[in-house]
Give the backbone structure.
Amino acid sequence: MDTKRLFRSKADRVIAGVCGGVADYFVIDPVLVRILFVLTAIFGAGFIIYLVLWIMMPEPPYKFE
């Protein structure tokens, strides 16, 4: 059984790979996730959520070469 896990992205990262990892998990465009985080940072607690995810989300156990 293939279980889906949430990891930070190593291939699609701008700062920490959080948005790329969330986009990979939900199979959506990472630009949409980045826009959502920017909007929530302006109008809410998006920056805090991003920092918490940065700390809590592990990097994938494999390496991209």
Summary: The chain has a mean pLDDT of 85.
